[in-house]
Amino acid sequence: MKVTEHINQAKDTLYTFEILPPLKGQTITSIYKAIDPLMEFKPPFIDVTYHREEYVFKKQLNGFHKKQSIRKRPGTVAICAAIMNKYSVDAIPHIICGGFTKEETEYALIDLNFLGINNVLALRGDPVPSEKQFVPEADGHQDSSSLITQIKQMNEGLYLDDELQNLAKADFCIGVAGYPEKHFESPNMMNDIKYLKRKVEAGADYVVTQMFFNNQKYFDFVDLCRANDINVPIIPGIKPLTTKSQISALPRYFHIDIPEELAEAVEDCKDNKAARKVGTEWGIQQCKELKDAGVPCIHFFTMSKAGATYDILKEIA
What we know:
single chain, 317 residues, TIM Barrel, eight-stranded parallel beta barrel, globular
């Protein structure tokens, strides 16, 4: 079932989760351990992130260094298929621009279509650590709007090879990312809204926001979207705060603000156990307010760990 269908049929706020593929060489058992406790809350869908390749330079016997591509967390599509088979819920793979040509993207979408996966989250993706800015593949997508256009064209039965005939139409529901505190590359909020609107006009069906810790920023973001004719569902993304170090790490990696009250409370904690308790209580209050406001869904960034998300849901579900 499509994400939009789940939302339209729901009588109350839905609870959904995002997980990471396990590190290369590990089994899927860790994924099941992260999902099993959360199935109590009947998630209609589970997102699986995609991690693109990174580059390392390995020294050769001749003294020269060779550039090699590695992927630390492979297996997104296979994990989605396993989740759907084991739990009978929809799984949503993240599809990114970085590291793919348009032809490779088409093959990936064909595979997803064969597996009966009809939801995708379309993202540009981050630059690899060795690059200062995002660099698309030759004949790849520069941004997520272009990627969405390709997915939408497949929904219309249009493939890259225009000589093919009698082509089957795909039926993907397309999600995109939204930024209540703006994307860090945007010069201002209105510029960011312009790009989000472009994604919706290209064919995006819903938006999942970046994490935030101040609900007013989400409410203001939704109001700004509606004022600019962005009328698709906007799902708030919540990250339970679990360690003291996240007070500095999350703003650095995700370009978000931590409210002063929360930051001071965590800084006063003696250890991570105390910080996790503070973060959980904050998440409970955040989610209660969001639920009271009638949000269609609350999407938890679990980082493949169920504990804090489970504790929050036990209080609000």
